[in-house]
Design a protein that fits this description.
Number of helices of chain B: 0
Structural class of chain A: mainly beta
Structural class of chain B: mainly beta
Radius of gyration of chain B: 13 Å
Radius of gyration of chain A: 13 Å
Strand content of chain B: over 45%
Oligomer: heterodimer
Number of strands of chain A: 11
């Protein structure tokens, strides 16, 4: 399977702390995306980083990409209870298939 | 815009029954896809389409059929349901350009299917 892996599988933090989750993949990629899924709902796109980019920011989100290590990280700064969700990376190697990672469950406690 | 819609939201089938999960989008997206989500396994691609009349297999296509007669609709057919097909099914759509990498995917709310 070419499915990516994410770690940690679960993460519990206090509100105001930063949350970091990591994604490792197995193939060469054109871009990598991060999605959020609230319980029982569809996924929502957060950010896309291209293979020639090393870092990208969007609001409280910071994504890094290291193609030599085939890995990416998502940092959420100053977490809020509303950030509680599952987070997935997804990537494509240039074909038409998007492959998702196994996800990180984030819980932000008040 | 309604975005991506899926029906039904919930379905219970008996082993051997067939059914069609409906998916429609009103964003004029060329690319549509079906995923299944099982605990601890993320999303796995079942089938996808890059335009009307064009479909292809994903990672886990066995037991499922698709067709794309219009840009808007992409139904998923379960031919003979099995308990292993108990899952949550998501439809997604996006823009697509030949030779380009993927774009942001827009997801439907999902269909929760139980096969007994």
């Amino acid at each position: 399977s070419q499915q990516g892996e994410e770690d940690p599988q679960a993460l519990s933090i206090q509100e105001g702390e930063n949350a970091t989750m990591n994604c490792s993949y197995k193939t060469s990629i054109n871009n990598l995306q991060w999605y959020r899924q609230n319980s029982g709902r569809g996924l929502v796109h957060l950010i896309l980083i291209r293979s020639n980019e090393r870092e990208k920011h969007s609001g409280r989100l910071r994504v890094t990409l290291d193609t030599s290590k085939k890995s990416s990280s998502l940092l959420i700064t100053a977490s809020r209870a509303a950030d509680t969700a599952s987070y997935f990376c997804a990537y494509t190697g240039g074909g038409n298939k998007l492959t998702f990672g196994t996800g990180t469950q984030l819980k932000v406690e008040l | 815009n309604a975005g991506v819609t899926q029906t039904p939201k919930f379905q219970v089938l008996k082993t051997g029954q067939s059914m069609t999960l409906q998916c429609a989008q009103d964003m004029n997206h060329e690319y549509m896809s079906w995923y299944r989500q099982d605990p601890g396994m993320g999303l796995r691609l079942i089938h996808y389409s890059v335009g009307a009349g064009i479909t292809d297999q994903g990672e886990v296509p066995n037991g499922y059929n698709v067709s794309r007669s219009t840009t808007e609709d992409f139904p998923l057919r379960l031919l003979s349901a099995a308990p292993s097909q108990t899952s949550v099914y998501f439809c997604a759509s996006s823009y697509w350009t030949s030779g380009m990498s993927s774009y942001e995917q827009y997801f439907g709310p999902g269909t929760r299917l139980t096969v007994t």
